Amino acid sequence: MAALPLTYYGDDLLRTIAEPVKKVSNDIRKLIALMFETCAAEKGIGLAAPQVGVNKQIIVLDLSCYDIEPFCLINPVIKRRFGAIETASEGCLSLPGLFMEVARHQSVVVAGRDSKGRFNLLEASDLLARAIQHEVDHLTGRLFIDLVEDKIQLANELAHLESKLAEIRLTQAKELQQGGVITATNPTVAGVL
Ligand SMILES: [Zn+2]
Fold first, then answer.
1. Average pLDDT for residues 26-38, to the nearest whole number?
2. Is residue 191 over pLDDT 60?
3. Which end of the chain has fewer CB within 10 Å, C or N?
4. Distance 136 CA to ligand 1 centre (A)
5. Radius of gyration, alpha carbons of the chain
């Protein structure tokens, strides 16, 4: 299976509210499998469907490097956020190379369906809770940079990102011409989402 091309900062889809999944069909399961492939290929720990150009409420989390079984959530809803507000560095596959401090709740309870359509309720803390909050935000058109408090540093970082994205778009265009597989390298700190 091939990884899917990513959508990057500046793409309208990343600012769009994703549609709920009405039926967990085989096509949805195929998409989820490809999202896991893409997440692994990009060395991410999470991915939301709009990041691969699909306007649907699906997220995958892969923290297998932290001994957490990978899982997906369809139509996820955060039911509760609790615990301390913690600040940590965050990154996103759609904003390659940009890492900034973001404050989030330490723990969440999230509801959603799995790839078999079964309803799940999950309590998560720390990095997993952060990753879930980051991915669920993607489904409402919100990016982690919206939560960054240091707007001056953010403006500088976004200027760097723009030049990096221009390079990536050029590489994508060349690879498409050559019919090759699109790949992008992303540095990983605690994990990109
Ligand atoms: Zn992200």
1. 97
2. yes
3. N
4. 9
5. 16
